Amino acid sequence: LQAATADSGIPAAGAEVAFQFLHSELVSFLLREQLQGGGGGPATVQQCRAQLSKLETMGFQVGQAYVEKMTKDLPRFRDDLEIVKFLCKDFWASLFKKQVDNLKTNHQGVYVIIDEKFSLLVPMARGKQYLDRCHLYTAFPCGLIRGALTNLGLRAIVTAEVEELPRVKFQIQLVQHST
Amino acid sequence: LQAATADSGIPAAGAEVAFQFLHSELVSFLLREQLQGGGGGPATVQQCRAQLSKLETMGFQVGQAYVEKMTKDLPRFRDDLEIVKFLCKDFWASLFKKQVDNLKTNHQGVYVIIDEKFSLLVPMARGKQYLDRCHLYTAFPCGLIRGALTNLGLRAIVTAEVEELPRVKFQIQLVQHST
């Protein structure tokens, strides 16, 4: 095998694109599973919930592991806001090649993040039919965010709203520690 | 939200790590599904095959889409060897942050690729128990390679051998076109 071609001039698609495609493939896979299991009819609420939960769990695990790797040599964050800002800037940039477009907070534990062109939704933005599909495409990123926050010491409920692909609004509701 | 922190000095874990974690999570997920479906006993050959086939298909789809994106503005490759070299260098580097360690060919359509530290196996290299698990962890990358080659016009059978994690040997057997 010849020497490296770091200078080959071939544009690297970038692993974040592979991550995108793999997520998209995972959603399609679970959709197919759901359709096969449902005898061809529309999915029941229970079936939707089960698939959502699987995706959310996978997102959670990936988010936890990834943030662990990103932050292991960093000093501790000062407060919740600093953690959420880290999520919106460094975490987002590293995974999605852009930062979020907007972050709002009520300063009482609720944060709203808007990404106008969320990369995990881009492969799906072509097919409107996904909009009806039980929010299967936002379950993984919600888990991803929840996992990242959990690893940084914040318990949270994370939900997503999509009105028009690929724009997404995530809402993070911090859960106060009982200690 | 404050300005970008491209100079924040925080080491980016890199999306290829997220890709790694997501693959690892996908394998764990299918393992869990298999164990739940199998009533706790060892998986049957049919169950193993079904899970392998799901992973291989997902890899195939991702490989196809990814190479499509990587090569859409490139001139056509001259021959099979050039395609395989592209796979070993640019494709590998873009997804796994390294090139393959060794490429051999018999010049009759068989290529053997060795990666001494294959990144998709790194998260699994800690747990020896995975070695017995129906090769679940190599099915996706075999599909990935097959998908990449297919998109570049080469039909192939791709198999993998792992003697010691995370070292892997992929064998590519090109299938001659019947035209």
Automatic annotation (TrEMBL), chains A, B:
Localization annotation: Golgi apparatus, cis-Golgi network
Gene Ontology, cellular component aspect: cis-Golgi network; trans-Golgi network; TRAPP complex
Domain of life, source organism: Eukaryota
GO biological process: endoplasmic reticulum to Golgi vesicle-mediated transport
Similarity comment text for this entry: Belongs to the TRAPP small subunits family. BET3 subfamily.
Protein name, as recorded: Trafficking protein particle complex subunit 6B
